[in-house]
Amino acid sequence: MIRRILINNQILKRDCNSFSKIKNFDSKNESTIITPTTATNNIITTEKIDIIKKTNLIGIQKDELQDKVLQMGYPKYLGEQIWAFMYNKGIVDINSFERVSKEKREEIKSKYEINIGEITKHQLSVDGTRKLLISFDGAEVESVFIPEGRRGTLCVSSQVGCTFACTFCHTGTQKFIRNLTASEIVSQVIATRHVLNDFTNSSIKRTLTNIVFMGQGEPFYNYRNVSKAIKIITDPNGLAIGKSKITVSTSGVVPLIDRLGSDFPGIGLAISLHSANDKTRSEIVPANKQWPISELIEACIKFSKHCKERITIEYVMLKDVNDSDQDAYDLVKLSKSFPSLVNLIPFNPWPGSQYKCSSKETITQFSKILEDRGIKVTIRQPRGRDILAACGQLNTESIKEINKPIQPLEKLD
């Protein structure tokens, strides 16, 4: 629908999708806006413009999409077609829906849109890692794509900022703004696949093969939207990334660990542990004050009943904080409580950080103690450090609130 708008004596033609670019547009007003305009002879006039707030097709569950198609009087299979257009072919323009009549496209456009945000910055590291800054209605998050052999892993964000304030994590210094919607989480995947030209030919193996919820935010504090996004991402007729290719990382939100395994059997779980004793962990991971290690271990044991794969224990190596031989022995004991894989992560520095990375010799010795006692362990190679895309370096704001209180956990059905 085209509207004529008088702004500063100029008639502008705007598609309804472009109203957000008008300075006086109020996105919270679902029906109308009043646009003040200046006419000749300094006479102030106002023009009332009807606005239809459109719903983003991205993020709608498949059964809901089919219901909406039926409500419009069209056959259910049109919902399947739209789903495939968006997620299998990567189409982001309703006008490009093939084998859908112009009449149907126009009606769909009158009520819905496809919005995957805007990539405002794209950085490429010397090691091939890519960092995308994506804006959603002014709120920005970072996503990181890490190529490695035949596997390409996308690290997605679940919140703008973070609920917690882990002291070694750059995101933890950022003010929590809001949860991302299911649409915004899925859009990170779609946007990255467009950057990688993954939608050009469906017969060619995708470059993006794996997803880790290890970007900005605590996924379990946005579980409702994260779970909706996972359902869309894993659908075989869409993005088609299997549950075994997805890992969700948590700082230790105990009540939802078993829920994840129950809702998505076979999905990967990573625990952001970083210390195997409560005193040290409570100092660097605030979640431990609410859910101590003993409760975390019990939750991981329950999760293991749903998923056969090892639970990844993430352990950032911080000089003189958690890297002693005794710390390693404590970690051995904890790791034997359930099937696990310990991933030692050399600390990646960021502006203003109080920590230093453990030496290579210390990390090697720490790893040897674990291996000698039967623990499966890997040492993560830093990726994207030169563009601040490595683990713990993501941040889209410089506001520092280390001692901010933990928000209450969302109640789920």
Q: Which features would summarize this protein structure in a list?
A:
alpha/beta, 18 strands, 413 residues, 10 helices, disordered N terminus, 10-stranded mixed beta sheet
Query: How large a portion of the residues is in β-strands, by DSSP E?
Result: 15-25%
State the end-to-end CA separation. 39 Å
- Portion of residues within helices: 25-40%
Categorize the overall geometry: elongated
Total strands: 18
Major beta sheet summary:
10 strands, mixed
Biggest sheet strand order reads: 7-8-9-10-13-14-15-16-17-18
- Summarize model confidence as the mean pLDDT: 84
Summarize the structure in words.
The structure is a single chain. Helix content is 26%, strand content 23%. With 413 residues, it is of the alpha/beta class. Strand 16, helix 9 (325-335) and strand 17 (340-346) form a beta-alpha-beta unit.
Provide a compact summary of the structure.
The protein has 413 residues and is an alpha/beta fold. The protein contains ten helices and 18 strands.
Layout of strands and helices, then pairs:
Blueprint: E1 2-7, E2 10-15, E3 32-38, E4 44-50, E5 55-56, H1 62-71, H2 77-87, H3 102-111, E6 112-113, E7 118-124, E8 130-136, E9 139-148, E10 151-155, E11 159-160, E12 178-179, H4 182-195, E13 210-213, H5 223-234, E14 246-250, H6 257-263, E15 268-272, H7 278-284, H8 293-304, E16 311-317, H9 325-335, E17 340-346, H10 360-372, E18 377-379
Parallel strand pairs: 5-6, 10-13, 13-14, 14-15, 15-16, 16-17, 17-18
Antiparallel strand pairs: 1-2, 3-4, 7-8, 8-9, 9-10, 11-12
